[in-house]
Hints:
The protein folds into two domains: 3-69, Arc Repressor Mutant, subunit A (Orthogonal Bundle), CATH 1.10.10.10; 74-222, GntR ligand-binding domain-like (Four Helix Bundle (Hemerythrin (Met), subunit A), Up-down Bundle), CATH 1.20.120. It is 71% helix and 4% strand. The chain is built from twelve helices and two strands; from the N terminus they run H-H-H-E-E-H-H-H-H-H-H-H-H-H. It has helices at residues 3-17, 29-36, 40-52, 71-74, 76-83, 90-107, 114-125, 133-150, 154-165, 168-177, 181-198, 201-222, and strands at residues 56-59, 63-66. It has a two-stranded antiparallel ribbon with strand order 1-2. A hairpin with a 3-residue loop joins strand 1 and strand 2. Helix 7 (114-125) packs antiparallel against helix 11. The radius of gyration is 22 Å and the shape is elongated. 25% of the residues are buried.
Amino acid sequence: MAVTDEAILKIKEMIVSGDLGPGDRLPPEKELSEALGLSRSSLREAVKALEVIRVLDVRRGDGTYVTSLEPRLLLEAMSFVVDLHDDASILEIFAVRRILEPAATAMAVGKLDSDTIAELTAMIAAVDETTSVEGLVEHDLEFHRRIVTAAGNSYLSSLIDSLSSHTVRARIWRGVTQENAVSRTLHEHAGILAALERGDAELAHALTLVHVSGVEQWLREAL
Length: 223
């Protein structure tokens, strides 16, 4: 194992074990390197790597701190990788979304209160054929975000949100070029919401799968 990898694992163990928690300041470099049995150079490289993936926050002149370790923050590195993908690779992103989002929607069954159901119903009613393509996509993103958030798994919702936000361009493209995009989207959203309101997890899963797969299939044919 490379010494830098070993250093990363040792810092990770300190966080996992609770010796270091969110917001904690790391001991001075010399003290930490001696405690972990590492050279200062390998420790320095490990800190740089963990800073890139937002586990550590290096504050010049102040010290190095463990970040909040919130899912949104930790998934930013993955978001950067997704940004580097070309148009064809977005099909792989849709494939992952097709696996995760229906499952998250099914998990939301029984967790949407009446106020949230009413808000989602109003969101659907606020969109019509006069809505711009950008407005439709914004509605689509927020509709699914509300449902996935209700599933109650912050890591899952952050992951799906990161994937979903990187499919915006493809969804706008579909809205511009495909007939009846507005009515189709609203019809499918209404079906998903009705299944959630009835507490039918299996149906909510199936309808969300069809909904996400529709965009993926259209993009596959367009490419």
